[in-house]
Amino acid sequence: MATAVVRYTAAAVTDRGRKRPSNEDAYGYSVESGVYVVCDGMGGAAAGEIASNLAVDEILRLLRARNQESSTELPAAAESAVTAANDAIFSRAQRNHRLSGMGTTLVVMATRDQHVWVLNIGDSRCYRLRRSRLEQLTRDHSLVEEQVRMGRMTPREALYSPLKNVITRALGTQSRVTPDVFELEAEPGDLFMLCSDGLTRELADGAIQNLLNRDEPLERKATHLVEAAKKAGGHDNITCLLVRAES
């Protein structure tokens, strides 16, 4: 059994990168409510920025309102919040043709004591650093990732594929969407990272692991990760949200 975690600390940094004219990523968190969100929007005429911010705001609003949910009720509440965020984006696009097709990726982490649930849609990710080793908790909903899982493409081929930006599941682009849900228990010292693909496309897991293992405050870690991704190319918006479990 994992030792009960009594508190979490968090820090986040976002940057538009070196190539994009604006930042369509969004993030938000409430340590008190145990909810952490990162989104990466898509769509023209600033629609991606609208979608990502709408998703973050809706998830935080709903899960803050249900702050007293027990650990058995929280997973259903989190899935319900994701459904509501999807409805909000989809209906907004239906009402305004200039926003047609807008959507966003989503990765959410919800905590209650040592219990942790991670929900994702698209290719924004959640990782866990435990005892200095990095592990990817989520699986991308992307065309190349599905090809890799079926053995039709190697990870290296996926990295350089012209189709690497094609995602197969997004929030808000259809009337219904289902997130993947991962349940786990945190241990004191665990460090979780929620991020957009602007970080993981530029930095290999080994580089991320080395930066997360530095002995420095969370905000400095997040800043160094984002700066490293910019230095490596910064082709997309970059967002990094770090959450540490403490006893």
CATH topology, which one? Phosphatase 2c, domain 1
**How many E strands?**
10
Topology as a string of helices (H) and strands (E) = EEEHHEEEEHHEEHHHE
Spatial strand sequence of the major β-sheet: 1-10-9-6-7
Q: Specify the overall morphology.
A: globular
Strand content: 25-35%
> Regions with pLDDT < 50 over 5+ consecutive residues?
none
Overall mean confidence score, pLDDT: 92
Instruction: Give the biggest beta sheet.
Output: 5 strands, antiparallel
In the residues, how many domains can be counted? 1
- Multimeric status of the protein: single chain
Could you state the CATH homologous superfamily?
PPM-type phosphatase domain
| SS element count, helices | 7
Provide the structure class: alpha+beta
- What distance separates the N and C termini? 14 Å
Structural write-up:
With 247 residues, this protein is α+β, with helices and mostly antiparallel strands. The chain has a single domain, classed as Phosphatase 2c, domain 1 (4-Layer Sandwich), CATH 3.60.40. The protein has helices at residues 47-65, 74-95, 143-149, 155-160, 197-200, 205-212, 218-231, and strands spanning 7-15, 25-30, 35-42, 103-112, 115-121, 125-130, 133-136, 180-185, 191-195, 238-246. Strand 6 (125-130) and strand 7 form a beta hairpin. The longest helix has 22 residues, at 74-95. It is globular, with a radius of gyration of 17 Å. It starts with 6 loop residues before the first strand and ends with a strand.
